[in-house]
Fold these 2 entries.
Entry 1:
Amino acid sequence: MSGIETDGEDPSPVRFRLCVRCFRAVPTSTNERYCINDGSQMLEQCPMCKTPISSPYARYCAVCGFEFVLADSWRGQIEMRTPL
Ligand SMILES: [Zn+2]
Ligand SMILES: [Zn+2]
């Protein structure tokens, strides 16, 4: 038997949604889009560089260093500029 072994590599890494207020994390396989604790929209990727969140314990983006807790006010500024 000869062949390329691919054990150890997970082809589909689990990604998470993160609440930036209480840092509750859920896998994206669930359909929770809003935090059940405080009703804020959960973050699915870094708002700065769009990197998916790969750890439920992430507080900062691994790629650009963006502090996820700032995403709440960041998003608020964007909404304020959007005319309804
Ligand atoms: Zn929350
Ligand atoms: Zn980032």
Note: The first strand starts at residue 16 and ends at 18.
Entry 2:
Amino acid sequence: MAWALYDPNHGYYRRSTGPWGFEGKDYYTALDVGPLLGQALAVRLESVWEALDRPGRFTVLEPGAGRGWLGRDLLAAVSGPFAEALTYVHRDDNPAARMAAEQALAPFLETQRARFSSESEALEPFTGAVVSLELFDALPAQPWRWEGAAWEREMLTQDGPAWEKADPGEAGTWFASQGPVEPGDGSIWVERLPAIMGELAQALKSGLFLAIDYGDTAARLLAKGSDLRRFRGQQVDGNWWEDLGQADLTADVDFTRLESLLAAEGLKGIGTTSLGRWIRAHGPLAQWEDQWQHLEGKERLRRMENLLSLTLPGMMGDRFKTLEAWR
Ligand SMILES: C[S@@+](CC[C@H](N)C(=O)[O-])C[C@H]1O[C@@H](n2cnc3c(N)ncnc32)[C@H](O)[C@@H]1O
């Protein structure tokens, strides 16, 4: 998965063309369906800024920022003293992402309300928020399965994918700590997760850590026998070994592990909820209703579709989870 997505010459996320969008593209995201996620984020982050006693500088760091559309929608939605305090930092070494983000963020880059940072750049501690959307599901993950007497990992061999017995080390301890495992149970293990979470959490001096992603609790993923998914041309399947470098690979995010790593970094008030619930709690619903009255019919319908896709359980409402943690 690391090679398929991030090999400097052949990696899917190292190509010069992006995968995001509808026809002719591989998959669409919460950002393709409209600006409501960014608008809800603006309300949520303004309340964080208030809770911190309105600091003069409030930085929003987005690792895995892709095209920068979440930043664009956030910056377009804020106003007044909060907008003056806010700087958005895009962090993603994907060249296609960077190119698209230069365009999407152009007005904000010019006024220095947005800037780029590379993944290798050391993070200076800041007050504000770390926000990610579908970052953790794109981290290289190893599938593991309990066959009844031993753990097996899924590997790519000359003859195709195969399960082979191996010592899962720390992953085995983690899986076993989530309750009894039955034959066929399994999950994925992201080796680099502690390093990435540690770096991000340590940079946050005070404020909110917010992660929005596909995933579930560790126990549910284990019971489901979690696996890798391949996205190509708006189709999704489990044939992760096909079209390496030409298709997106993702793995469900283990939110129990994210929470546990953040707790170990000293963050407090940690909790995960569904995206639908988070939108209903923090989205400016009454304001939206009011504003949409004045939109032309087609545009109004688009906003409603945007809201439905973010909140309906079978769309993104339940399949996406939102984790919040505070420092
Ligand atoms: C699934 S895409 C999501 C992009 C965007 N957030 C969206 O929702 O459209 C994942 C992105 O994470 C980036 N990425 C992967 N590992 C990263 C890391 N350690 N730091 C920053 N970005 C990373 C990839 O280059 C890719 O652009």
Note: The mean pLDDT is 96.
